[in-house]
C-alpha cells in the first residue's frame, strides 16, 4: 500500500507531503501503525527543533552517505573519467580501498558522528 503524509507545518506555505510506499513489512504493523511511526519519526530529527518533512532516519542516512562520499574522495584516487580497470585483481584492490575509506572507528560506532 502507499500513503501521503504531511508531517510538518510549512513556513510561508512551503509544506509538502511525502509519498510513502510500503513494499514489505516484517513487523506486521497495521497501516495506521506505520503511518503513526512515520509521523512520529518526523519529529525526532536532532538538527531541527521542529518537525521535518520525512522521517529522521532518512535524513541521517543521507548525511552518512554524504560523509562517506567525502571520506572516499579524500582517501581513494577516484578518476572522474570512469573505470579504467580491466578486471581481475585490480577490482579487489579498488574495493578494499573503498572499504577502508568508509570504515568507522570502533569507538565511534555507537554514536551518530555524521549529524
From TrEMBL:
GO terms for molecular function: nucleic acid binding; translation initiation factor activity. The keyword Protein biosynthesis applies. InterPro entries: Piwi, RNaseH-like_sf, RNaseH_sf. Pfam families: Piwi (PF02171). Residues 1-73 form the Piwi domain. The lineage of its organism: Eukaryota, Metazoa, Ecdysozoa, Arthropoda, Chelicerata. This is Eukaryotic translation initiation factor 2C. The keyword Metal-binding does not apply. Keywords: Initiation factor, Protein biosynthesis.
